């Protein structure tokens, strides 16, 4: 959500994107001590210096939530395709 708002602000559509996010009713999941360790583990396993997946810091938050909650990710590119998380789109 944060990354979406940052990109939207750069493109001068932050208010519109914020309204869309609110309207969709996303659940904001807090970072706990356990999830912080899982995010660090994800970076150690799939991060830019450790894997061809090359996940960045923010990607590791999405990865951890997907794994912890059994969610599939909607993404473009090949970074998440090189991990063990399932994508939303066919073949991902």
Characterise the protein shown here:
The chain has 92 residues and is mostly helical. It has 2 domains: 1-29, no CATH class; 31-92, 5'-nuclease (Rossmann fold). The chain has 4 helices and no strands. The two termini are 21 Å apart.
Key terms:
single chain, 92 residues, mainly alpha, Rossmann fold, 2 domains, 4 helices, 51% helix, 0% strand, globular, PIN_dom, Ribonuclease VapC, PIN-like_dom_sf
Topology overview:
Blueprint: H1 2-10, H2 14-24, H3 33-46, H4 57-69
Helix pairs in contact: 1-2, 3-4
Give the percentage of residues in beta strands: under 5%
Oligomeric grouping of the chains: single chain
Largest sheet: none
CATH level-1 class of the largest domain: Alpha Beta
Distance between the termini: 21 Å
In the predicted model, the low-confidence regions spanning at least 5 consecutive residues are: none
Shape: globular
Structural class: mainly alpha
Number of domains: 2
Number of strands: 0
Tell me the Rg in angstroms. 14 Å
Secondary-structure arrangement, i.e. CATH architecture of the largest domain: 3-Layer(aba) Sandwich
Mean pLDDT over the residues: 93
How many helices? The count is: 4
What is the CATH topology classification name of the largest domain?
Rossmann fold
Order of helices and strands: HHHH
Helix share of residues? 40-55%
Which homologous superfamily in CATH is the superfamily of the largest domain? 5'-nuclease
């Amino acid at each position: 959500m944060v990354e979406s708002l940052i990109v939207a602000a750069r493109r001068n559509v932050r208010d519109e994107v914020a309204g869309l996010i609110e309207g969709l009713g996303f659940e904001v999941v807090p970072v706990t001590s356990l999830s912080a360790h899982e995010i660090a583990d994800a970076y150690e396993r799939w991060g830019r210096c450790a894997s061809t997946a090359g996940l960045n810091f923010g990607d590791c938050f999405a990865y951890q939530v997907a794994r912890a909650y059994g969610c599939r990710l909607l993404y473009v590119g090949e970074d998440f395709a090189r991990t063990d998380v399932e994508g939303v789109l066919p073949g991902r």
